[in-house]
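Hey, I'm writing a tutorial for new members on how sequence and structure tokens pair up, and I'd like a real worked example in the thread rather than a made-up one. If someone can provide the structure for the chain below, I'll link this post from the tutorial.
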Amino acid sequence: MDDQMANRIEVKALSLSYGPEVVLDALSLPIPSGQITVLAGPNGCGKSTLLRAIRRLHAPQSGQVLLDAEDISKLNGKALGRRIGLLAQSPSAPQDMTVEELVRLGRYPHQAMMQPWGAGDDAAVAAAMVGTGVAEMRQRRIGSLSGGQLQRAWIAMVLAQETDVICLDEPVNHLDMAHQLDCLELVTRLNKEQGRTIVLVLHDLNLAARYADQLVFVADGKVRERGTPETMMRSDLIDEVFNVTAEIIIDPVHKRPICIPHRRS
């Protein structure tokens, strides 16, 4: 896979700790351009920290993250914000903020003293709201939104950044089944129709297998294995990574592998 396509992001031997706790341990991972890469693994294995490190929100002890072969440590904050968008897990904002005000925050990396808000910013915000289906609620306070509506508003904020790389940490967390599908279908359209490189953290292994081009299992701060869902969804590997015995079958509709967990191993 690495020889056949360019990698938009290269994580190289990245190590990161919180105090004495090692969270990422010399982790290396290529993220192919124009694909959906899904990170999966047990709680606390380092998935969210890896996303934040890719967006340079945590400085590593060693290793580096390359974006289009350029070390992200050499980019200033706004330059990086114009190239990588991140929606963290459980983001927060003032409850009396309107949807449009929230989405407009996504344009911050594009603002400068000599480049005030302009027509291009208005167009980016409008397109992001239309694309996520929140345009009609632009004047609503975010405190009045349902969980699914609020998540779409946050994704609209990330889209307004107009980055080629979008990182989403558990974007379907706390959403019901219908809104989970809406969210992931939106992500898929961004990838297929606009060529965005998407990096997702998902806990639901069956959703991960359904939407991923590259599926990555992270455990103990390292990449345990990566590949297509067809090569990754194996009973022995799921037992090794998740400590769960499971049967793998093929989804008769989408033709992707499905994990049927039996019990803890």
